[in-house]
Amino acid sequence: MNNKRLCYILASAALLLTPVVANGAEPLKTDTGAKTLRVFIFAGQSNMVGSDSKVKDIKLFPPFAGLDMSQDKVLFSYNIGREEKLTSKGWVALQPVDGVVGPELSFARRVSQEIKAPIAIIKCAAGGTTLGADWNPDDPSGFKLYPLALQIIQSSLAELDRKRVAYRIEGFMWHQGENDMFDREFKPNYGKNLKNFLAKWRRDLNTPNLKFYIGELCTKTVWGMDNRENMYAIRAGQKAVTDTDTMAEYIPTSHDAVEIGGGAGLHYHYGTLGQLEHGVNYADAYLRTIGKKPTSNRPLKVLPYAKGSAVKLFILAGHRNMEGERAFTQELKALPGRESLAKDNGKIAFKYSIGGGYKTSKGWEPLGPAGYYDTFGPELSFGKTLQGKVPGNIAIAKFTHSGSQMNDWTPQGTEAKDRNLYPQFIAFIQASIKELQAKGHQVELAGIFYHVGENDMSFGPYRRDAGRWLQSIVAKSRQDLALPSLKWYVSQQPPTDEEGLNAIDITANLASIAATDPAFIHVKAFNLTPQAEKLVITTAGVVQLGELLAQSYLEHR
Fold it and tell me: S-S: 377 plus which of 71, 139, 229, 324, CB 3.0-4.6 Å?
């Protein structure tokens, strides 16, 4: 980039060009130094690159509209790729590279909306690389990414020095580890290697208090199933570091969207939507660091029920489509008769834990859109359909984790202990009941409405065991909640149609359970608005799913 262009970007970013260079400073606890350029480093492997994402698809996701355009007030310096590297050759305006969506795009916009200071991003990432070799700061091998990243960071900062730009290295965003899990030496030593990695960066950048944001390996990918134990080992190593390093934070990502691809629909990468959400995760974590926690306060100050009255409590539970991965509130206005779902309904109390606890309600809230990326689930249309048709009071409590599979919900759990959801699920239901009872209400648990795991339906070994797993969850829940006849409404979208998978008739398996258990209602959600891709239902389908579940309750109450 020539000096004229650089000066233009710096000016548009409202930088203070002074002789004072504030490099290596500790991240601030409050938002001060509004004219000091804040520099963020992004590094890692393919899910930091943005592999299998497409800039042209950004327009499909309303909350992120416009991120295909250049962000001229944000500086960007990058070296991306392995054998064939894409380089900025200095500072440029932040923009998509080679038609790919990286997390830096949504990160920059989110942060820029919340702080006055200008920001800059330095990115070095390459797919299929390991911390044990490529990123090894002591003995780099393979693509030798540690020295490469150090060089691009130092040269980029040197250019700011030459321009007399005041800056501060503010944070280091790291997403990597999938390839280390396949190496017998690297896997058990990931935590040790990561600790050393952070220490060497702080030393080499002369930033002893540099804050690191360590991105979780997404369990929603196919590797979250066929490499469950391996991924758990890497996550355990990451958490061992973030639990002991006060300047390192673990950033959950398993609730993010994952690309739909391959014959059965499963994928290894976040893809377009997931990458955009990935960047928001880092942005929100950083903003919390400086005391600017984004909040959406939706208090229900008083429960909308007469004192001492009875309340029917409906529990909604499940994975990607119960969470509402690709159902956006902005699209409700295009659905005739459903536009009002975008508004809070203060007559129905709503409580939730979504994304495995990534976002939880602040007590009881009015029923309304509550997803973390302007998304919503079937609860909106479910509540509206029941309202006026069910006598008395209605409350809804929703517990989801879109990065889970059905075996995570079983009472016995799996070897990936940090994903064992059953104890949390039952505790959530029990707490919801007790909270209403504490307000003087008699509570009737009207039923659990569960949408079967979408990923499970696309992976042979899981599809084969899904019925057995589900029966164990149902039986134990009835025991632990002391409700032997508790009704479970289990909805199922058309199972993945793929040669090999079709030999496992999951629909017949669920129907056979319903045939022997009168309190198990099998809801065939086979006539929803056709989804564009396998696995994930979009806005219209999610609305219809909620209506279908409500109708099933009305028919079987």
Answer: 324
